[in-house]
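Retro notes - structure team

What went well: the batch runner handled both jobs without manual restarts.
What didn't: labels got mixed up in the shared folder, which is why I'm recording both outputs here explicitly, each with its sequence directly above its tokens.

Job 1
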Amino acid sequence: MKHVGVHNDRKVTVMFRQVPDEPNNCLVVYTESLPDDTMKAVQECLATTDAQNSNSFADAAMRFKTVTGEGLLNTIHVGNLMKKVPTSEVFLTPNDATKVSLAEVNTAIGDAPVTAPAQTSAPAGTPGALSDEQIAASLRSQAATMQKEAERLLAEAEELHPLPKRGRGRPPKAETTETASV
């Protein structure tokens, strides 16, 4: 399995094989020290064909959604779970019998430029992508539909059990005998 290895005898998932402008460092997460839900999400993401076909696990993690609906890469980043370590100290273990230095893998792959994951938002003019104007119109239409449904539900509730009518203003102050005799 790609993107898994060890660092100082601890299991890691290699998020980025190299740090931009620091080719001798990489970013990893210590898999076993992750929170349970995040560890499960990392393992599920690693098992996908998307992750196995990606050169960087971060690309697949960015597209993978956790149980909360948040991107896995964002969850790991916000949780401050990635650690920068030297590539020479990380050994990839694609199977139990193989152990290869990440520095050697990076050298063998070559000096391909390392970049951050691409943004998922579609650029303007992309076929099939909605513009801000189209999204706003859709939201307004949904809000109008919901408003009509809310009015209908309120009317139905009023028919089933009307609220008591309220009188206008404050009730008049009752006179006491003491104030009347003065």
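Job 2
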Amino acid sequence: MFMFLYDIDKPENIMLMVNDSNICKGDIISITCSADGKPSVHTYQLFENDVQVPDSEIAGVWKRTMSVRGNFTYRCVANNTVGITDKSVTVTVNGNWYFFFTYLHS
């Protein structure tokens, strides 16, 4: 009798990265999610404030245009045939900075 042992587990070592932490309204950010798993991760899902973001062309990578100010919680869910793992990050979007100069005539 032969016995095979397989090391299988849900995704682990999940990493969720945003390309810039100093974000202003109108900026485009890149969000990358990756994880290890046995078996390999087969899908990544991204949620913005608990609303699913449409899938991107590249698994685990999304681009978002930050059109409003505020705090946004991004949660990545990594899935394989054994289970799921998730990780969250909060992004703060500030308003645009405008500088006004006054020119006085004498």
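One thing worth noting from job 2: Residues 41 and 80 are 5 Å apart (CA to CA).
We'll revisit the folder naming next retro.
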